[in-house]
Amino acid sequence: MVQRPVSLFLYGSSLPVVNLTLYAFAHSANPGFLWIDVRARNEPSDVPDPALLGWISKGRVVTYEAPEAVKPNERVTAATVSRLIAEEESPRNLSRLIAFLQLPDPSQCVLAAKPANGRPGIVAVPNVHRVLAAFANAPVEPIIDAHLQAGYSLFVGYSDHVDGHHRPVGPGRNLFDYVFRVIGDGVPGWRNSRLVCEKGEPEGPFRTGSEFNLADLPFVADVFHRAIVEPRPKMPRP
């Protein structure tokens, strides 16, 4: 999974379990990952959260305090972009460029730079369920493609049960290279949580249909051990 840029979609009913598992995947793939954190206004900050716990340096955390802050720039269209590129450019490249230019400025700055240390960079985006409305008219595939072509893997986390509301995940998840469902009720019972690979490799540890207990995945277990043992600081989010 770490030899080339890939896309990964991770979802489940427990927001902290999803986010901690997403952190584990990102840190395992490349410790220099970028964490793009989309928050809801007045969101409680007393749950285990990688950014709040200080596990990620401030230079690698981009926080949006409202979902609408990541809304694509709809003024960038095929008509405006086509005037800037050669006529013979393929439709796919045009779509990729539009998706790139519609991204928020911090994301554009990341993708415009080469990944450090020669490994694929990682852009991890927790709380994707919060931006569905903002991206309602934006095709997902070009956004994924823009990251991969820039040399960055795109890892996203989605909670299908937040604030008492059930938001089932849609078929768009199948556009990602890997799709994982994490089944668990919360961090205290994480040892009984399971990770199901709904879409993955034809063979190997993360092949389609494989299933694991989180406690049997060392890179994930270490994260949950740390989240339980470490005190939760009361501080503003970065």
Q: Would you spell out the secondary-structure blueprint of this structure?
A:
Elements: E1 7-12, H1 15-29, E2 34-38, E3 61-64, H2 78-82, H3 91-102, H4 105-112, E4 121-125, H5 140-149, E5 152-159, E6 161-162, E7 165-166, E8 178-183, E9 194-199, E10 211-213, H6 218-229
Parallel strand pairs: 1-5, 1-8, 2-3, 2-4, 4-5
Antiparallel strand pairs: 6-7, 8-9, 9-10
Q: Can you put this structure into words, describing what you see?
A:
The chain is of the alpha/beta class. It has a single domain (7-229), classed as Rossmann fold, CATH 3.40.50. The protein is built from six helices and ten strands, in the order βαββαααβαββββββα. It has helices at 15-29, 78-82, 91-102, 105-112, 140-149, 218-229, and strands at residues 7-12, 34-38, 61-64, 121-125, 152-159, 161-162, 165-166, 178-183, 194-199, 211-213. The protein has an eight-stranded mixed beta sheet, sandwiched between helices. A two-stranded antiparallel sheet has the order 6-7. α5 links the parallel β4 (121-125) and β5 (152-159). The longest helix has 15 residues, at 15-29. The radius of gyration is 18 Å and the shape is globular.
Question: How would you describe this structure in keywords?
Answer:
single chain, 238 residues, alpha/beta, Rossmann fold, eight-stranded mixed beta sheet, two-stranded antiparallel ribbon, 6 helices, globular
